Amino acid sequence: VSNMAECAAEAIGADPLLARVGAYYHDIGKIVRPYFFAENQTDGQNPHDSLDAKTSADIIIAHTADGLALARKYRLPDRVRDFISEHHGTHLVSYFYRRASEEGDGQEVREEDYRYPGPRPQSRETGIVMLADSIEAAVRANRPATQAETERVIRQMTNDRLVAGELDECDLTLRDLDRIREAFSSVLQGVFHPRIQYPERAQHRVSSHGAGA
Questions:
Q1: Global pTM value
Q2: Are 103 and 53 a contacting pair, CB within 8 Å?
Q3: Buried b (16+ CB within 10 A) or exposed e, 2-16
């Protein structure tokens, strides 16, 4: 995420160092309850399976407030704190919102109870980190097999945030978004590049000469 943010900031003339440092700190609140977040679940067990959807959403959403508490404790600069509070904006925690709607017993499920409190990104740098964070997670989860598929994921996630209004307050232009997408694509190609699928005969020939792919 930090590599993506830095490259994108350079591409549009924003502050690349601020974007990189902000990316380092944006998710520090997750260390308060780390195993409730998918990237830290390595044993196949998910603690959300034993919780109701509202409690799970509250825990997920709380990582921004938890991060701000840590930032104040360790006296992080205000411009770095902005990344913690703004990188999800007012985005809906859609998985748990849908689960609550499906499991509801007739009671109203309020969408606002499943949204981050914001604010939305107020600078180009925090807007970039919002996009980098969501796109990196989507690419990691979907593992696109080609560069074209990766670019579709990047475009879809960017459009989702744009249409939802999450980028309305951070002065990113449509031309900026084009350059940001190009920067993200370049970085992600180096991280999640697909392996070449050799034809069977070519694989046999390579193996018979004692070489590896």
A1: 0.86
A2: yes
A3: bbbbbbbbebbebbb
